[in-house]
Specification:
With 282 residues, the protein is an alpha+beta fold. It folds into two domains: 55 residues; 215 residues, no CATH class. Helices cover 56% and strands 10% of the residues. The protein has a four-stranded antiparallel β-sheet, covered by helices on one side. Helix 3 runs antiparallel to helix 5 and helix 8 packs antiparallel against helix 9. It is globular and about 65 Å long. It starts with a strand and ends in a 20-residue tail after the last helix. The model has no long low-confidence stretch (mean pLDDT 88).
C-alpha cells in the first residue's frame, strides 16, 4: 500500500489502518490471524473509517451476519414476531409494562412534574429486564431525595434531550452506585420504543459481534452519548435487515437482539419457557 498512515486503531483483536494517498484515502483491516482485508478506497475518510469498522466486525470469531442471526431467531420462534410463543415469552410483558408506565407516569408530565418515583419503581419491578442486583438499588433512587431529578432526566432524554439528559441521569445514578445502562435506558425505551433502545450490554455486544456491527467494540460501561449513538445505529441497521419479518416496533427489535445474543441452544424447546433476561450478564 502506498500512502501515509493517518489513523491506526485496534478494534477487538483486529487493527484498522487508514492512509492518505494524494487527495484520496485507502484503508485495510489486519485480522489477528494474519493477512489483510482490503484495501478499500473512498474520498471521505470518515465514511471509509466506518467501512473499516464494519469489515473488522465481519472478521470476529462469532460473526454469522444477519442471515445467521435471523436463522437463530427463527429456530427458537419459527413463526417469527407473529407467533403466540414469541408474544408469550418476549413481547406481552414488555407491552404491559409500557402501558403501565404511560398510565401512571405519562412522558410529558414526568418531564416536568414530581412525585412519580413510586409509580416508576413499580414499572421497573414489572419486568425481568434488570437483574435482581440492579433492582435492589432502585428504591434508594426512586424513594429518596433524588427521585424527581432522575425521573425528569429520564423523561427529558426520552423526549430527545440527548447528552444533557443522559449526563443528568448518570449524576443521580452514580450517587446511588447504580449508573448502569440497563437502568438509564429502561424508561426511555418504554416511553419511546420508536426512538430509544434498552441496553443490556453483554447480550447486545454478543449480538453486535454476530452481525458484524462496530458496537461490539464501541461499548463502554460509562454512560456516554457516543456509545448510545452506536447502539442506535445498530438498531437502525437491524430494523432494515429485518424488514421482511415485519417487526412492529423497537420492542420487537430489542427482543430479537436478546434472543439472538442471550438464548442458548438449549433454550426454548417446544412447550417450554424462555429464559429470564434478568439472569443474563448485564
Amino acid at each position: 500500500m502506498i500512502g501515509n498512515t493517518i489513523r491506526e486503531e485496534k478494534r477487538g483483536k483486529a487493527t484498522l489502518r487508514l492512509l492518505k494517498s494524494g487527495t484520496s484515502y485507502q484503508g485495510v483491516v489486519l485480522p489477528p490471524s494474519g493477512g489483510r482485508i482490503g484495501p478499500f478506497h473512498d474520498e471521505d475518510p470518515d465514511r471509509l473509517w466506518q467501512r473499516l469498522q464494519d469489515e473488522a466486525g465481519k472478521a470476529a470469531a462469532n460473526y454469522t451476519g444477519f442471515d445467521g442471526a435471523r436463522a437463530r431467531f427463527l429456530r427458537f420462534f419459527p413463526e417469527g414476531f407473529a407467533g403466540s410463543s414469541y408474544a408469550e415469552w418476549e413481547r406481552n410483558f414488555k407491552v404491559a409494562a409500557q402501558a403501565k408506565l404511560n398510565a401512571t407516569a405519562p412522558l410529558a408530565e414526568a418531564a416536568t412534574g414530581s412525585g412519580f418515583g413510586e409509580a416508576i419503581l413499580s414499572v421497573f419491578y414489572a419486568t425481568n429486564l434488570l437483574s435482581p442486583f440492579e433492582k435492589a438499588r432502585l428504591p434508594g433512587t426512586l424513594r429518596g431525595p433524588s427521585a424527581d431529578a432522575f425521573v425528569r432526566a429520564a423523561a427529558r432524554f426520552a423526549q430527545g434531550g440527548g447528552e444533557p439528559g443522559l449526563l443528568d441521569m448518570r449524576r443521580v445514578l452514580q450517587s446511588q452506585d447504580n449508573a448502569k445502562w440497563t437502568v438509564a435506558t429502561y424508561l426511555p425505551f418504554l416511553w419511546r420504543p420508536d426512538a430509544h433502545m434498552f441496553l443490556k450490554p453483554e447480550v447486545t455486544k454478543d449480538f453486535a459481534g454476530r452481525v458484524g456491527h462496530r458496537f461490539a467494540n464501541d461499548y463502554d460501561a460509562r454512560l456516554d452519548m457516543k456509545d448510545y449513538d452506536s447502539l442506535l445505529d445498530l438498531v437502525r441497521t437491524t430494523k432494515h435487515e429485518l424488514a421482511d419479518l415485519h417487526p412492529r416496533d423497537g420492542i420487537d427489535v430489542q427482543s430479537f437482539i436478546w434472543i439472538v445474543g442471550g438464548y442458548t441452544d438449549a433454550d426454548v424447546p417446544p412447550g417450554s419457557r424462555g429464559p429470564s433476561e434478568g439472569t443474563a450478564n448485564s
